[in-house]
């Protein structure tokens, strides 16, 4: 029966591509680390599904947006749960993307011929930040309005293009209904479309080059070559096939499913224990401290060190940091991939992560101790 079904589908749609994908050999030794990419995918899938449901109730209009969020959170059956799933998966997404990028960077998996996989990855990261930022305004409550205002004001400090960027993104000098319309369009259409295309490109490149994994997958071959007297510098590990491989299905599919199940359960439990309630649309008190999402805390803290007329410098350095990401493969071109044998980039990478985490923690303690 199974064979009959397979032949039926194969004749009509052609299963060989699909079967080749399932049989694609993957490196075996560090396999659990290679679940982070698909873990990101499972969180993004939760975002798309819950986001689609939230769109059934959300009214992207300055007059009704806040009350529509209140209605879907407080009146719609399980509305609070769907909204919390959407928010918690967004929060976990940035942690998992961060871990995936760190894994890929430290293992040198961005090196030739996988430079483009990294570049597309960096564009995915930018797009995900854009989705997080535009989503933050949509509740249209007091906090969201202030976040929009702070965001607009910060943008306006950009040398030369600041005022243009602000009015282009806010739809005017101040946060208003047009800001909501633009942020909504970017959050539900423009950026998710870009994200979808980039992820497909990313997965295509991973399939084209095969998964590199890390240097541990090639140690037998490296040792054999070194035993023959081949100098380590001339061993191009990224062009080798792993010592041990296993097909994508069933082993890696099983691991990816376990991690996805764990993540979806975690998001679900967080949503039940710490649901995102409606914050209210009361006019802001005289003094309000906008509380950006935690994944913007390090940016928030960073800009604190550039007060008043120094803000443009802080903004330019921040922009250069983000713009630098896709160029990493062209800066670190040496074929060596082992983190131990490339201590400088590895330590810089670890230090940058630590710095971002410390900045976020400092912002957190500042925001909540006010
Ligand atoms: C939505 C976000 C992302 C998704 C869904 C995703 C998905 C994946 C998947 C499924 C893999 C193969 C398995 C693995 O190594 O985990 C992978 C590998 C890779 N990803 Fe991503 N990724 C994302 C973001 C990124 C980012 C932000 C970067 C870098 C800036 C990146 C760079 C890479 C590279 C270079 C590889 C190849 C690793 C290797 O061959 O060992 N990815 N990605």
CATH C-level class is Mainly Alpha
**How many individual helices?**
15
Judging from the principal axes of the Cα atoms, what is the shape? Answer: globular
How many structural units, i.e. domains?
Answer: 1
Radius of gyration: 23 Å
Biggest sheet, spatial arrangement of strands: 1-2
Largest beta-sheet characterization = 2 strands, antiparallel
Number of strands: 2
* Beta-strand share of residues: under 5%
Reading the helices and strands in chain order gives: HHEHHHHHHHHEHHHHH
The N- and C-terminal alpha carbons lie at a distance of 67 Å
**Mean pLDDT over the residues:** 90
List each distinct ligand once.
protoporphyrin IX containing FE
Q: Could you tell me the CATH topology label.
A: Cytochrome Bc1 Complex, Chain C
**CATH superfamily placement:** Cytochrome Bc1 Complex, Chain C
Describe the structure concisely for a colleague.
This protein is 66% helix and 2% strand.
Structural features, described:
With 370 residues, the chain is mostly helical. It has one domain: Cytochrome Bc1 Complex, Chain C, CATH 1.20.810. The chain has 15 helices and 2 strands. The chain is globular and about 70 Å long.
Topology readout:
Elements: H1 2-13, H2 16-23, E1 25-27, H3 36-55, H4 65-74, H5 79-106, H6 115-137, H7 142-156, H8 162-170, H9 177-209, H10 219-227, E2 245-247, H11 248-273, H12 297-304, H13 311-324, H14 328-331, H15 343-368
Antiparallel strand pairs: 1-2
Helix pairs in contact: 3-5, 3-11, 4-5, 5-6, 5-11, 6-9, 7-8, 12-13, 12-15
